[in-house]
Amino acid sequence: MPTITLPDGSTKSFDGPVTALAVAQSIGPKLAAAALGCKVDGELRDLSTLLDRDCSLAIITERTRDKQPDKDALFLMRHTAAHIMAEAIQDVLGKEIQLAYGPPTDTGFFYDMFVPAGKSISSDHFAAIDARMAAIIKENRPITRYELPAGEGLAKLKAEGNKYKLDNAERALGLPPTQYKGAKSDAEPKAAASNANARLSFYATGEAGKNWEDLCRGPHVPSTGRVGAAKVMSLASSYWHGDENSDRLMRVYGTAFASQVELDSHLTQLEEARKRDHRVVGKALRLFHIDDQVGQGLILWTPNGSVLRQQLADFIGEELRKQGYHQVFTPHIGRLELYKTSGHFPYYKDSQYPPIIEREALEQLMAQGCGCAEMMNRVEGVSARLAASLNERTGREVIAADRVRPDEELLDGYMLKPMNCPHHIKIFASQPHSYRDLPVRLAEFGTVYRWEQSGELNGMTRVRGFTQDDAHLFCTEEQVPAEIVGCLSLVKTILTTLKMNDYRVRVGLRDPDGAKYTGTAENWDRAEKACRDAARSMGVPFTEAPGEAAFYGPKIDFMIKDVIGREWQLGTVQVDYNLPIRFDLSYIGPDNKPHRPVMIHRAPFGSFERFCGVLIEHFAGAFPAWLAPEQVRVLPISEKTNDYAVSVVDALKAKGLRATVDLGGDRIQAKVKEAADMKVPYMAVVGPRDAENNAVSVRARGIQKDLGAMPLAAFVDAIAREVATRGAEPLQING
RNA sequence: GCCACCGUAGCUCAGUGGUAGAGCACUCCCUUGGUAAGGGAGAGGUCAAGGGUUCAAAUCCCUUUGGUGGCUCCA
Fold first, then answer.
1. How many Cβ atoms from other residues are within 10 Å of residue A388's Cβ?
2. What is the rounded distance in angstroms from the CA atom of residue A686 to the CA atom of residue A638?
3. Strand, helix or coil at A704?
């Protein structure tokens, strides 16, 4: 006699078990007709779910009360669409395509499948797959769920010969995988393994035993027709369970919406996003260039982009001076021993460029007949002296005995720096410090190099060489909270000035069971509390992420959403107990004894490259005047006013403004269009009328008309003020 | 790294085995025009690089190189 509680708090009682659909029908036929699925005690389920005990129930329909697409409804539709696409692909390309894993995602769904040698799926097949999908949707076949006892289900899958599905089932049942010995087992054997009642569920797209079916946890919409519109989007490769040592699969992406109109508008939105893409805008506005011959992932800052970067650097430089930072400069390379001490080498060698070895040393090795393997051993080796002191300081074996080599065998070299901290530490350590000196804040726009996999590279947002607006703060334990707050307020100032308000803050904390962390539990507790308190004081949404801390300390990351909805980690603040130990840093305390300082790493922008990439998309290239590479373009009506136009540009330049003049033979309409295409914030149109009155006719970006004439001197002053205040006092025109 | 697609003029792109194309940008000429493209002419390419097949290759095949999308959220 189940009692069902509905979202409005009302209850309904039934004599015996009922399906969610029956409950919907008892509320109203329209609701039942619109229903796609349900939520039982908050869990998304099929409409056919049998409710046999008291529970809360919400019926999922295409739209929420305010007519917005319902997220759960989309999830259900896309899950079903994944099945429909898989069926369509097998229809088009053959049953030899083995299905592996096909879940919904935030923007659609994908299906990973094994494509046997000799077969391949390419975008040429998309039209056929789309057509087949549309047909299946039109057939409006019911989705049928059935369950088998675990043993029977496994036997069925074994008979079908799909090892991926078998593996999935074993994992779902909590059994040890028999199919993938080498694959990492993310699932701990669950209690379910011993549960004799464990069952596997299957979904047929139509009639069980007759139509296409798939091992699937569900849930799904009640019939294929309830998927409004679906489309294959793209292809990619993936690994089984994300494990690169496991099988390589083909991933087919698709998306589905409640209606064709919504699908179309999604596609249009993607198109719009592409127009804002920093790579597209960057090329059109000539902001940066990446050259094959220079190298992948290496940004060449062209004059226009350099203006952007310089303005950001100046902006942050001012803030740093206000906050008592010291500017430093350090080289782009450093000796390997430095990074052996810091721990960067060779532990992160997969993400670093290989070491630079001096030519003489190389020639000597060659003369000795030394092979590559031996050379790497000598490069990675550590002297007994360094190993002993590092192991002692850190209190554990950070340098294993087998890495220790006799001094005469060690081969030193240089490394492109992957981080700035070791250099800054050496500046700090170059002289003794009293507690009265602290905190010491060393800032540098430091360029670092990291070897990212080629497939990870992306325009300016994922690169191999980048310049961080980096700083390292050396302070006492007690000063940590105040310093973190200072760092966060800096980030907030920057983001607010740039009107980048769509971000969240993530506080990375240590794992509860973490044994891998450096530093004492008390220090960690204090630092984590400081991070949490500081994040809270910002007044922006923040989440705590246990396990996201670095091994050397907790951190605070700023995650910024770009126009395509991707999140980028930009600014970061990290507390570090490890490097002060490894480098044996100290300051003299009031007790006249040496104490260990704490380090804080922070980079408000992250890197200029990524930040500018995101900034370009944020503004779609239409930068505020203070950032714009070209702030004013002067447009003479005809060559008769060229001389006056030049004098206007000179007046603007005299105030330090970035102004150009278009002396070409085009008509004014063409000149206006060109300046608008380049997203110049202000145009100063000048003709005989203006020349006579020593005035300019102003046109602002985004406003499709002439804003009228204003005296030249007033215009120059107004623009200069807008730029100097970074947009806080914009040009006012009576228009 | 891996899978799919792609690389043709400065930019955006046509060109499926038979003499390398268009629009924009550029240079010059005409036009001297008051707010999102006035008209004409010209110049510009080792078709990413290398190799192969062919009487003939931008086009077909192989290799290299670069770019784009993607590489999980228990079935």
1. 13
2. 9
3. coil
- Of A313, A328, A623, residue with least CA distance to A494: A313
The two tokens of residue A305 are 């982009």
Q: Is A216 a catalytic residue?
A: no
* Residue ranges of E strands in A409-460: 414-416, 440-449
A234 strand B contact, CB < 7 Å: yes
Integer Cα distance of A476 and A438 in angstroms: 7
- ipTM for the predicted complex comes to 0.90
Q: A133 pLDDT band (50/70/90 cuts)?
A: very high
Among A470, A562, A662, A690, the one annotated catalytic = A470
Q: In this structure, are residues A681 and A670 in contact, taking their beta carbons and an 8 Å threshold?
A: no
Tokens of A339: 């990074």
Q: Is A506 strand, coil or helix? A: strand
Catalytic status, residue A186: no
Q: Which amino acid is at A18?
A: V
How far is the C-alpha of A428 from the C-alpha of A471, rounded, in Å? 12
Query: How far: A665 CA to B43 C1' (Å)?
Result: 19
DSSP secondary structure, A85-104, as one string: HHHHHHHHH-TTSEEEE--B
Contact present, A716 and A699 (Cβ < 8 Å)? no
A592 is near strand B: CB distance < 7 Å: no
**Contacts with A717 (C-beta within 8 Å, 6 or more apart), sequence order:** A655
User: Chain B bases under 7 Å from protein CB?
Assistant: 1-5, 7, 11-12, 25-27, 29-39, 65-75
- pTM of the predicted structure, to 2 decimals: 0.86
- pLDDT class for A194, splitting at 50, 70, 90? very low
Distance CA A551, CA A270 (A): 39
pLDDT tens for residues A502-532?
888 888 888 766 666 766 778 788 888 888 8
For the question of residue A344 being annotated catalytic, the response is no
